[in-house]
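Continuing the series of single-chain predictions for the mutant panel. This is the parent chain; the variants come on the following pages.
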Amino acid sequence: MKISYECGPCFLRQAREALDLSTDDEDLKMEIIREIFEYLSECFKKGTNSNSTGSTMHAIIKERTGCSDPYFREKIEGNELALKYLPDVKRILDEDDSLENYVKIAIIGNILDFGAFTLDDDIESVIKDSLKKDLTVKDIVEFEDSLKTNKKVLYLVDNTGEIVFDKLLLGKIKQYGIDITIAVKSEPILNDACMAEALDAGLDEFGELVEIGAGTVGYVDSKISEEFREIFNDHKFIISKGMGNYEGLTEIDLSSKEIYFLLCAKCNTISRDIGVNLHDMLLFKK
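Parent structure:
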């Protein structure tokens, strides 16, 4: 997906947060934010890829501060928040164990995204409200057909915290007798799940865990490893979680894939691109 003018303030907000989490050196933060201004002044233009731009910006911050995982504590916080609400979502699933409800719960998990919300947002209230909402777009019939007709699926996870809710959907998918490959980031970026967090959450109980070969914002096709490219090309059926993966995957040819996007539209640029309202929860086939 290409950037919009609204991505500019969002990049700077993320830069400020990442800098504050990475270092207390005010002089260094001043130097780095100037570098980011210079970088954005060069590349921020119509037609620029949003994922690649954000990935480069965060790479600058990590390299200059020496902090390889600025959101380390926030990832722990995300897991704790998800676990806090796990009994609530399990009660919902006890009352209605339909595939649609499992999908809904997994998408609600996508709200736990410190890349889209500020650290001061009341995320708990957002989750409570979202538990009461229905999906705005739900290609659930097509999704279940794909589960029934394919032998394997590639599941692209998004955030730490969110993966706690992904486990519930992965367990439901296993009931269809389908082999699952679960893809995580190879290096820390924002609060995205890497191998360590996926193992801690127990995702390996549901399928084979693989790394994409990069630590990028969402999916950046030019950055993935050749090993993961083979895995990606070998899968016709793909489940993509989150906005970052949507932004990156819609930049490449998906005509040979059965790909389903599960996400909450948490910014105006994404909402306009898909054609939905802000904060809508979506399951749709691309």
